[in-house]
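Known limitations

Files may contain more than one protein. Parsers should not assume a single record per file. Below, a two-record file is shown to illustrate correct handling: read the sequence, read the token line, then continue until end of file.
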Amino acid sequence: MRFIFGAALALALALPAAAQDARVTFKSAKSGSSYYQMSVQLAEAMPDGIDMTVEESQGSVQNVMEAAIRGGDYVFTSPPALVDAARAGTGPFAERASPKFAEVRALFPIPSLTMHFVVRADKNAATLADLEGKTLLLGKGSFGASEGEKYLGLFGLEGKVDIADAELSNAVAALKNGQIDAFVTAGSYPAPNVIEAAAGTGVTLLTMSDDEVAQTGRSRLVIPAGTYPGQDEDVVTTSLPVVAYATTAMADDTAYALTKSFWDGKAAMTKGAPWWGGVTPDLLDNVTGPIHPGALRYYEEVGIAVPESAN
């Protein structure tokens, strides 16, 4: 699926001379995924002078690994915690450490992976504790599935919830015909499968207490009221932040132009794909390492606060 933002992007951005005709490669996710769609949208939002090529990826670990061997034209997405692990040589990078990982620099946030606990409205559920005794579809092999399973253990629900043996792609149909009471999904909001379920069946999104959020070790995120049909109140949940990165090999002017183009084009992108509406400067608080000097220049110009670790 491609999203065209013609007038966009008719923004007459005055790019620095060094960024004119800049060519960059954007590596994000598997084709067909929402994050691949986002990368296409970003590429189409770039003004004249920045030629962005979208490259399919098998995941964030691959994205970070390639930062050690790619040049100054390389842009990729990753959760900040994974970049931290690469710098420290831990986790998936324990056997593949590289001093090049220390040169990774953040540019701007993109939509976070947001946890959704979706329950049929007629099941009268409001919190995670209300999942007890219900049939829940977790799915398999995804961040949402592993995270949802973790939460069942954290909050005393293990063995008290009937786990459906089905793929997440079947969740909306299974919810509608009563085979399941609830499902878990993680993605940028508004998530298409949650919109479909809310419109066709009527659902409740479970909210979490601040103490529950803290126990998960994830970032707190609020899904605003009105995001989904029938959602009358804000929903507190957790998220895995995702950030666009480059390395110090990228010219400052190019990093500046990319960052400026992203924020200047975000409103137009939101009209075509609402998940961009959840990206605000506050998400920069999730950046745990340095921000690229070119991006910092933009944030200083427009008065956007960055974390103390940014420099």
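...continuing to the second record:
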Amino acid sequence: MKKNKLLLFAGLFFGILFTSCEKDDYKNMVILNDEAAEIIVNSLSSSSYGFASQVKDAAELADSIYQEEEKAAKNLKSVNADSTFTITNQPGSRITYEYTVSYSYGIQMNGLKPEFFFNFTTNGEYTAPRTSSSNQSQGEFIISNLTAGYNNYLLNGSCSRTGSQIVKVDVEIELSSTINFVMEDISIDKTSYEILGGSAEVTITGTSNSASFDMQGSIVFNGNKSATLTINGIVYEIDLENADIL
């Protein structure tokens, strides 16, 4: 009987110890792949006013500005425009956001070929089901293939987002991060302005629980508002429109 009690006590002791160690592991962890994926997806998604929104806006403006300039003169000259505005989510949206946005854009000549340059900054916040963030972003895009001989636009450039996040995948953690994207040959439909293909390299660095992290990944844009994100060899299929990991 005494032996059974000792065994029971030992089992309870090690069970409590294991649970305590498990909680300490969560408390002391830096950031998991799944948590990094959540932040990256929301930084891209149009639902949280991520970079897919700027890509689409750049394509729409490229179309509008180039058509106007082409009609105005046979020999295109550099043209510049600026705009600043505040944007919020549609009522009833699953993800809410509010940003102050500044765009600087126009036509420039690369030799004999016209290009559309698009620079932007944003400052604001979003709240998604598993992530909330207060952040600032900036980016520089160049769109080529403006002339009628090309079916799709081609976008190259870089963008970054810096801020603080609260992420809850398994447990809730708080962190500060900077996400950098380098976009390569992003193909954009000239009619719908949707992303058809291309790729991007992504890095996410920052601190959580007083520890630093540095993760690298890649994104392949598949069209149909979907993309494939790879971080540390782990592959995620993502919905660019709804900020979902499928």
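Parsers that stop after the first record will miss the second one. For reference, the second record is described as follows. Residues 55 and 195 are 8 Å apart (CA to CA).
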